[in-house]
Design goal:
Layout (H helix, E strand, L loop, with lengths): L1 E2 L7 H13 L9 E6 L13 H6 L3 E3 L15 H17 L4 E7 L1 H11 L6 E5 L10 H12 L7 E3 L4 E3 L1 H8 L8 H6 L5 E6 L9 H4 L9 E5 L5 H5 L1 H15 L12 E2 L5 E6 L2 E6 L6 E2 L5 H6 L4 E3 L1
Parallel strand pairs: 1-12, 2-3, 2-4, 4-5, 5-8, 8-9, 9-14
Antiparallel strand pairs: 6-7, 10-13, 11-12
Helix pairs in contact: 5-6
Amino acid sequence: MGTERISSASLPALLAFAACLALGPSPAAAEGIGVVLLHAGSSWPGEFDRLRPQLEEAGYAVETPETCWAVHRLYGGTVDACLIDIDAAIAGLRQEGNDTIFLAGHDLGALNALYYADSHPELAGVVVWGPRRGGRGGSNVDVETATRLMNAGAGDKRADFSNGYVYSTPRALLSFRGPDSPLADEAELLTSLPVPLLWIDSNDSIGPRDPTPRFNMAPANALNTFIRSATDHFNMVYRSADDVVAWVGRVQAASRQQPTKRGAPAGALRSRDGDERFQLGGASIERGGCRATACAIDPTDQAVDQIGTPRFLVL
């Protein structure tokens, strides 16, 4: 595993570039940007009460719809039927003059964000926090019961599941949690993603301990970013506000420039405990002791040039 080298000739320019990215866009630059936040399964829009004002302070318009996987509406429709909640939130933002839309989701909301984005390449990007592994959640007994009711011709009749916690039609429940759910095949969700991806995860998220293989299923894109949060599955959402703002700024800057070339700067990330690892095209470069406000990769560094377009991991 090599060690990153930064040439002194390019350091000032890179640090200036990094500082701009770390700060994110100014409120003026953020005009016309809308963000839709999709809550976790069995949750509600209130989970974004600490994140929303931070995004609004950055100048973004924000919508937090209550979806049909909310605690009050759990499995109130099939996955496809529930997309109307996202459509309505985006339409509201566009009516207010926001033409650049980012879709973000947490947990089950993350899977729905990926699913929606697959058929909406007009989105500017997708942010996911701790995506579930498939649409799973709750008891397998529920899936067996729903399947039995479907086979008996009662797929559209509401029934109790999860000891009365869920009151849903078998068809809707299986749409989210069954083996044929559109959320069940991660490879299909990720390999066809047409927009840049910011993936934020924690050690206790609902999924495998190492989510980077899932992240790497997404099509190669120099803007794709994975961040490992030192906090837990829920607190990582509001604590990542600065990261989200900085990443949105990078995506916006890239949209105003020529496509990124191999060996171009990957961008900048604020240090976490002084140690960062950048995952570059299947290889990695370690850096320790970066205590500056921002750190950057030198595009002239031979190790970086040999590896190619960066997709990086921060620990």
